[in-house]
Amino acid sequence: MDASPPGDGPGPDYDPTVEEPVQPGRHRVGAPEPEPLTEHGPARVIAVANQKGGVGKTTSTINLGAALAEYGRRVLLVDFDPQGALSVGLGVQPHQLDSTVYNLLMERGVEPDDVILETSVPGMDLLPSNIDLSAAEVQLVTEVGREQALGRAIKRVLDRYDVVLIDCQPSLGLLTINALACADNVLIPLACEFFSLRGVALLMDTIDKVKDRLNPDLELIGVLPTMFDSRTVHTREVHQRVLEAFGDLVFDAVINRTIRFPETTVAGEPITTWAPNSSGAAAYRMLAREVIAR
């Protein structure tokens, strides 16, 4: 992968607040409308991971989950970041919670149903988090089977869901290793920016090590280009390099940079309900169809 930064240059009419239409890419055909389900479970577990922060992991977890629920899938979102951004993005105040994923991991007798919350999206539930989870990374170090703690915690509810999406913290520490160790697939949101591109090699190395030592069934489901802005040369060149590096593993869905996503965080709901006719909502529905098809 070429390490030289791409050129940049927004046009004279550049306005970061203007929402772009869905951009055509290699072929942008996406996937067909999924068939409705007659029964649910067992769930496919997908870790949404990238050790670089600010690339759209949490936004993608929320909105992919909501789009999958629209297509009749039962979805569990796991907030596995001590910052609790996923919980906040769904209107939950983490500091007010009595029980979180931390309690499920670390305390005997706590059941998933004691922690799981319903969201405003029918068919989509949340396993919330808050700053307490930061202690788990330290406490798990001395535990036997420390890399499988999350897998053991959620195993009891897999039969009731079709998809479990784990929002990983922006690091390659023990919490992220836990997510990868119990996942069937990894989805990598990749901002169309040079420094985001540079860090992917380290993440891929971690995925390979987890696959080799802990979870031989772990597979990369795809790379999701995020923060795409066709008005800059930089974005277009980075996107082209992503396509060259990952080929068919790059999703046809592309998430454009738009003011709508910060608005949804304030509203505490996914873009599919906050702005259902927006290009962002259309892109995540397209992504959901691709995830179902893969």
Characterization of this structure:
The chain has 294 residues and is an alpha/beta fold. The protein has a single domain (44-293), classed as 3-Layer(aba) Sandwich (Rossmann fold), CATH 3.40.50.300. The protein has 13 helices and 7 strands. It has a 7-stranded mixed sheet, sandwiched between helices. Strand 3 and strand 4 (124-127) form a beta hairpin. Helix 1 (57-70) packs across helix 13 (279-293). It is globular, with a radius of gyration of 18 Å. It starts with 43 loop residues before the first strand and ends with a helix. The model is unreliable at 1-27 (pLDDT under 50).
Low-confidence blocks of residues? 1-27
Structural class: alpha/beta
**In the CATH scheme, what's the topology name?**
Rossmann fold
Please list the strands of the largest sheet in the order they lie side by side: 3-4-2-5-1-6-7
Average pLDDT score: 89
The shape, in one word, is: globular
Number of helical segments? Answer: 13
CATH class: Alpha Beta
What's the total count of β strands? 7
- Per CATH, the architecture is 3-Layer(aba) Sandwich
Please outline what is shown here.
It contains 13 helices and 7 strands. It is an alpha/beta fold and 294 residues long.
Strand-helix topology:
Elements: E1 44-48, H1 57-70, E2 75-80, H2 85-89, H3 101-106, H4 112-115, E3 117-118, E4 124-127, H5 133-139, H6 149-154, E5 163-168, H7 174-182, E6 185-191, H8 194-198, H9 200-213, E7 219-226, H10 233-246, H11 260-267, H12 271-274, H13 279-293
Parallel strand pairs: 1-5, 1-6, 2-4, 2-5, 6-7
Antiparallel strand pairs: 3-4
